[in-house]
């Protein structure tokens, strides 16, 4: 679920790039670096969530997305919504993993009890 959120966030950052170019006073190079840098970071991180540090980096991207608010005011809202989606997916994913581990443990215990001796 978190990979899907990061992928959608990459699209949103792709759409923020023209806004950075036209509606802000920052240089073209910096606007492209910020906008397209976030796009690349989100796509790469979506594939890196299998690594232990991937989720920490995803948390950082969410903070930076909201932190872009002073440059583009709407990013307070858009970044906040993506952060909410991210943390919900993170929490639900953890809950699903715990429940799956409990179900497998119960299945293993049941198989051990019913195995012929």
UniProtKB/TrEMBL annotation:
The organism of origin for this protein: Nocardioides jejuensis
Keywords: Membrane, Transmembrane, Transmembrane helix
Protein name: DUF4233 domain-containing protein
Annotated InterPro entries: DUF4233
Regions crossing the membrane: 6-23, 30-49, 69-92
Phylogenetic placement of the source organism: Bacteria, Bacillati, Actinomycetota, Actinomycetes, Propionibacteriales
Domain of life according to the entry: Bacteria
């Amino acid at each position: 679920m978190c990979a899907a959120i990061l992928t959608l966030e990459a699209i949103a950052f792709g759409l923020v790039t023209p806004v950075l170019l036209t509606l802000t006073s920052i240089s073209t190079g910096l606007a492209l670096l910020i906008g397209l840098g976030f796009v690349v970071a989100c796509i790469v991180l979506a594939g890196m969530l299998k690594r232990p540090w991937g989720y920490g980096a995803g948390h950082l991207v969410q903070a930076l997305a909201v932190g872009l608010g002073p440059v583009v005011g709407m990013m307070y809202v858009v970044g906040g919504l993506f952060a909410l989606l991210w943390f919900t997916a993170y929490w639900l994913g953890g809950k699903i993993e715990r429940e799956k581990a409990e179900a497998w443990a119960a299945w293993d215990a049941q198989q051990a009890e019913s195995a012929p001796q």
